[in-house]
Amino acid sequence: MELQPFHSDIIIEPFRIRSVEPIRFTTMDERRQLLEKAGYNPFLLKAKDVLIDLLTDSGTGAMSSAQWAGMIASDESYAGSSSFYKLESAVQEITGFKHLIPTHQGRAAENILFTTIAKDGDVIPSNTHFDTTRAHVEHAGAEARDLVIDEGRQPRSLYPFKGNMNLDKLEQTIQEVGADRIPVIMITVTNNSGGGQPVSMENIKEVSNIARTHNIPFFIDACRFAENAWFIKSREEGYADKTPLEIAQEMFSYADGCTMSAKKDGMANIGGFLALNSDEWASQCRNLEILTEGFPTYGGMAGYDMEAVATGLYEALDEDYLRYRIRSIAYLGDKLTEAGVPIVQPTGGHAVYLDAAEILPHISSRQYPAWSFNNTLYLLGGVRGVEIGTVMFGMQPNGTEQPAAMELVRLAFPRRMYTQSHVDYLAEVIISAYEQREMLGGYEIVSAPQVLRHFSAKLKPID
Ligand SMILES: *Cc1c(COP(=O)(O)O)cnc(C)c1O
């Protein structure tokens, strides 16, 4: 008898925990009072009253001992800091882009890029623009046009790359508006506003070909580039044996630049950058950077932030980490699907989306089913997600309310923060809310501002 190699299908957290942050247990009665005091709006809850906080994966993750060590050893020189050169070399190795423009977060990179290159009457196509991207495109007077494939709008479609750009629509857009009115073509990886769904290498390559044929620069919104690389590795033919770093390098090789929020796959609590090849655009962007962010070798970041990001970008590409990351999301998705809870399929890279319209057919859009379900998760288990439905998207610029296209509750996972037992507990809370769904009622708005009302609206349950 020979000793057989041990094999396990369990994907354990690829880290051990050496610094802990207590979370606070509350009773259901306490949570009922806390929620009422918060105007039934989870954004207005204090974080210390939340047990498992899945409001966002942005800037909420845990940093590694290597990142903290780098922060202590950082260089805070105003000009030419070694922390800048460390970040520059990381960004250049991973993306291949020539110029690095550090910023305080992703939207600052968007502001600098679009203020510099877009103008009134321009059109900027993307698979789906993220909210802040759209806002900056529109702020520059241009139109942000979403051209995701049809499967990307179907919650039950199992297509493996639901974030892909519709290439016919891209060609049509170029024919219709003319290449000279399209300063840049963007693609968001993974497609955050479309459920965190990935974009295939083939699609990135084809978008790049179209852009090059028409002489239009092509930029990647790279916030979740590492998660996207993992989906390419595990789902696209020919990539199984490549490392996430090699895949990321190939993705970026088809583009002329990228915008990045380091609060996502930079594994940091703050930070971002713009990276690009064009000398002319880089020098114009740097002029604006000095005005709005800071000197070009720190932008909006402290030296220690640049250290955290330089190390974090590589940690995000670690295979064991990515396997655990993507599996944690799928693991919750599988448990919910087994229990019959309808979710957006397949699960994406950073969040699980619950389909509240299907869970609560007795609550009309005007009574905010996803808001109701999300509040129920807090009441039952101290869990905080976010409504992505009619409260968030229903208010029209003319002051009328329209039902949103979907009523979703998004549960976004902070990176390296929660363990499997947290996720097991989370599944139980969601399943319990689902089993009691017929008892749930709708909500009405008591007061709300005109724009971005979900952040500060006060609501109340309808009896
Ligand atoms: C978060 C995000 C941004 C904006 O980044 P911030 O750091 O929040 O300013 C842009 N695009 C996508 C896809 C994002 O997820």
In a few lines, what is going on in this structure?
With 463 residues, the protein is of the alpha/beta class. 39% of the residues lie in helices and 12% in strands. It has two domains: 28-50 and 318-461, Aspartate Aminotransferase, domain 1, CATH 3.90.1150; 65-315, Type I PLP-dependent aspartate aminotransferase-like (Major domain) (Aspartate Aminotransferase, domain 2, 3-Layer(aba) Sandwich).
Average pLDDT works out at 96
How are the strands of the largest sheet arranged?
2-8-7-6-5
CATH topology of the largest domain: Aspartate Aminotransferase, domain 2
Report the top-level CATH class of the largest domain: Alpha Beta
How big is the Rg? Answer: 22 Å
What's the main sheet like?
5 strands, mixed
Question: Beta-sheet strand percentage?
Answer: 5-15%
Give the CA-based shape.
Answer: globular
Ions, cofactors, ligands: which are bound? Answer: pyridoxal-5'-phosphate
Number of domains: 2
- Report how far the terminal alpha carbons are from each other: 70 Å
Please give the share of residues in helix.
25-40%
Strand-and-helix sequence, N→C?
HEHHEHEHEHEHEHHEEHHHEHHEEHEHEE
Provide the CATH superfamily of the largest domain: Type I PLP-dependent aspartate aminotransferase-like (Major domain)
Query: Can you count the beta strands?
Result: 14
Supply the CATH architecture of the largest domain: 3-Layer(aba) Sandwich
